[in-house]
């Protein structure tokens, strides 16, 4: 039996454009982000999906709501385990502000950021639970860039996740006989129109 999970990064926000760390700050999509959400929704309307879930943060929920409207399917649930990694004290800052505030070696300081290993475990557990809840089904999850990359690193060791996930990109992973594989990574062909 094969279970397919479509992992979607939310649409763009003003903070994305300003290079600000969002973390768990509950920012809305900007105008372009709303258009991107409609574009991924249109793309997904030509595919078969059984369930739709979202992170509980606003930017992911707004993206999921566009998909929900276009596909005529309810959001099956909000999944706190798929929310973005906590950015601690650096949330709301850009690189220059971090250097000004804490120096060029700010990454070496304890600024309250969520541990990547914890985030990877949290995201992986959420995906595994949804796959177990819906065996053999096609499940969409709208989430966040950093969390998805760390989660994928844990779900599929050896997968190259160095290419940062783009806004409303879809990554499709498949679980067959207990083993995860990646069929599609960071695809944004729906935005090329």
From TrEMBL:
Catalytic residues of the enzyme: 10 (tele-phosphohistidine intermediate), 84 (proton donor/acceptor)
InterPro entries linked: His_Pase_superF_clade-1, His_PPase_superfam, PGM_Phosphatase
UniProt xrefs under SMART domains: PGAM
Gene Ontology terms: cellular component: cytoplasm
Database matches in Pfam families: His_Phos_1
GO molecular function, a single term: phosphatase activity
Residues annotated for substrate binding in this entry: 9-16, 59
PANTHER family: BROAD-SPECIFICITY PHOSPHATASE YOR283W-RELATED, HISTIDINE PHOSPHATASE FAMILY PROTEIN-RELATED
Protein name according to UniProt: Histidine phosphatase family protein
Organism per entry: Paenibacillus agri
Lineage start: Bacteria, Bacillati, Bacillota, Bacilli, Bacillales
């Amino acid at each position: 039996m094969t279970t397919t999970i479509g992992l979607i990064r939310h649409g763009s926000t003003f903070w994305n454009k300003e290079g600000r760390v969002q973390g768990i700050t509950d920012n809305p999509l900007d105008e372009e982000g709303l258009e991107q959400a409609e574009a991924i929704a249109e793309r997904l309307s030509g595919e078969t999906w059984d369930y739709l879930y979202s992170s509980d943060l606003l930017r992911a929920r707004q993206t999921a709501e566009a998909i929900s409207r276009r596909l005529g399917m309810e959001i099956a649930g909000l999944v706190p385990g798929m929310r973005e990694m906590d950015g601690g004290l650096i949330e709301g800052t850009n690189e220059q502000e971090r250097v000004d505030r804490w120096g060029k070696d700010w990454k070496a300081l304890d600024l309250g950021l969520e541990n990547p290993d914890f985030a990877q475990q949290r995201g992986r557990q959420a995906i595994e639970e949804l796959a177990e809840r819906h065996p053999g089904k096609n499940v969409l999850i709208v989430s966040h860039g950093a969390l998805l990359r760390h989660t994928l690193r844990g779900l599929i060791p050896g997968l190259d996740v160095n290419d940062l996930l783009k806004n409303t990109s879809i990554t499709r992973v498949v679980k067959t006989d207990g083993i995860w594989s990646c069929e599609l990574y960071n695809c944004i062909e729906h935005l090329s129109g």
